Amino acid sequence: MPWRVGRDLRHLYHAAHATLERSRTLLRPICLIAKPIHSTRAPWRPAVALKLKHSHTAVQSEETVEDLQLTPLHDLDVESVLLRWKRPKEVETVDPDTQPPPHILAVLEDVFKRYRTRLPTLEELRSSPATAELVTYLRIPHRPPALAQHFLNAREPRRALWIIRIAVQGGYSFSPKFYGRISEKLADMHKWRLIPGLTDVAREDLGYTTTGLLNWRLQALMESQHHFPLQDVLDLYAREHVRVSRLTYHLLIAMHLRNHDLTTALAVVRAMESAGLTVSPRTWAVILLNHRSLGLSPSAKAQALNALQTADAQTATTILNSLVQLLLDAHDMTGAIDVLSMASVPSAGHLSDHGVGTTQLDGANSDHALSSPRGVLINITTYNILLNYLARQGDLSRSLQTLEQMDGAAIVPNDATAAALVRLYYATDSPNDALHIVADALRKFPAAADLLPDLGFTASMPAKHPIYPNTAIPTVGLFNSLITGILRYSGLAALNIVLRIMRIVKVDANAATLAILMSHLNRREKSRPREMIRAVRALMSIGLPPTTRHLHVLMAALLREERAIAHPRGWTVGPVPEKTSLRPFATGNCFEPAAGVVFPRRLRYRTLMRPILQSLGDRGVRSDRVTFAMRIKHDAVVKCDLEMALTTFKTMVAAGIQPNEYHYGALIEGYAAVGDMRGAVDIMSKAIDAGARVTVKIHTMIIAGFARLGQPTEAVEAFRRMVGEGIRPDVPAIDAVVSAFFRAKAYRMARRALLQLWPQVAPISDELEKASLRQLAVAFRALHGVNTKVPERLSSQEQRMLRWKIRDILRRWKSAEGYSRDKAERAHRPARHRHVSLARTPEYTRAKRC
């Protein structure tokens, strides 16, 4: 519908423009600087499997981008906790004599009102009598630093940088230490796009640069997904006659690990060793913290555990938290609890540091995994990691236990805890409690707090769960959590209210905000890919480059559309026996930003996507786990080219990227799509052997594969194996079993199976008991996606009851199948055989005797 498409596009444009920070300074490549100028037993039961949303069975469903990609860490702050190792901040004392006088601030306000779209130049200020006093003021010692600091405290970094630039042009000179402090402030505010411009001004002012300023620039470009070869960076530092510090190498290691380039990251480690800098526990902390894009390998885990034994307290805590995060990414709650137990068990003594000083990642000794290093502390970051994971699981009870343990340990929550709780309470149907936390963050902004009732907030209703007053502050992480929950509950109608609140409190949306909105439109609204591509193109037109998260959503939308063409939905659609002749995608290099998927010419998608892919390619962005999963699914499902899919899978593994259930699931879906169920079951066995989660979704692919072949017995047996593993069936899994009987034209059995298995999802109403199969199927499929709060694991009693129902279904089907087979055989026998068979009946024998 045109009005709906226009509405979605308006929302996307609005979010795209909101992501533009107030500075229009474009990122400059780093190479442009050319002249001289930072318990052993788990107290909780293992985490249950993450419930994945997918569509109706007959076509195996696509993953949402949220399922595939890693959620960002708001509290593992790389620049402050790991790479720079800040000391506790001292309380800044403000000299009253350096405070900007009110008349100067009034002049500046007039300037900002007059120049809304751009800020004036020094010549324009000099030519106006109203601003001549400001030019003079900016030449007085200590006045420009205080004025810049004033605007930074007021969360106006663009104005602060303009003050610095005008002061330098007017002849004022700042110290290198001042530029370092301003860079640190901008990093704390996550204004990475402004740091390269600041370093340009610093070089112009000082006439040279420093190692610290170049490190700040390198990190800012890394945070903006600009990636550079190792030798180019080393050559740059050599040209600038500055020292390459350990921090520089750590930044390069982090850059290439984030870019999923393990080979180059190891080359950086070897270059650091060649420069006389040994691989320290802090280096392993850097490696581990940035290893999320690759997944945790056994060798990396062993090396990290070895590094724990010699690390200082702060480094050990960071390594511990990183290990916990990586284990939770793999849904290994038991392993995470074992690692956390190291913090509470008394030290067992020092261990040998095999591998700590070498670049070799394999062959490390992991026998000391549960030895406790001295000084490892569980801090608020540890609890925030656990809360974020449990929020994704929707596990309220264990989240509350975690909060009780945090209170018992006297650990004070922070703003990242508030964002995690907002995410948790929306995921567990407590939106008013989440809004209580947001209201606490807006306690100093009454105009913004007055808009919360429009989001459904009832201030008079007390919170049912902990909210920790005076903890939350307005951050983009908090608002992104709020937007995720608001879109789930209220849809697009409430989005503009949240964006208005953000403008009032001067918190800019970021690229992740737009990615959240795009994911919602792709998942719930089913927007056309063209509209989302245009939104990202609009983002580029205002100076903000696209990110891999934007690419993930666009690829998911395009893949969904192309797969719908290759495999139409419905119970009556059969498998593709051979490679399909439909080849909408071509393929290229697996390490390109889109993993070598070349988009179809249909509807000009290839032309529309070209600038986005070129922007990512020019910045050196490589394919990641998500794009590899989509490439494998594209090869296996859309093209039905299993050989190419396996080649892509092996290429990914060889690059050091650990496969997970999504990569194995893509292969299984491909085998099932072509009817090779033996191959699909074999891939599932290999996934289990590799330690990947086998979820209800993967089992559904197997069941649906047998259903497409018209093999109800095998489909029900696969369903029984899933139940035997304690996995609760969902709507698509039951729908797959029913479709198997439908394909075999056993309509009564299909109806009986649906009625027997329906209570596993929701109670069935009395009026549906006598409905037709078609009416039952429509009503049952409508239950998919409804927020039914049921455990994802079956209890022992539920397993016994469900196994009894499955046996009954199989018994009735085999009985009916045998009767149908005998009937069909009698109908096709020759006449003489029918006569012989009749002569052998008891009735004929008795008649003959009489």
From TrEMBL:
PPR repeats lie at residues 379-413, 695-729. Pfam families: PPR_3 (PF13812), TPR_24 (PF23276). Residues 232-339, 640-750 form the Pentatricopeptide repeat-containing protein-mitochondrial domain. InterPro entries: PPR_rpt, TPR-like_helical_dom_sf, TPR_mt. Belongs to the CCM1 family. PANTHER family: OS03G0856100 PROTEIN (PTHR47447), OS12G0638900 PROTEIN (PTHR47447:SF17). This is Pentatricopeptide repeat-containing protein-mitochondrial domain-containing protein. It comes from Trametes cubensis.
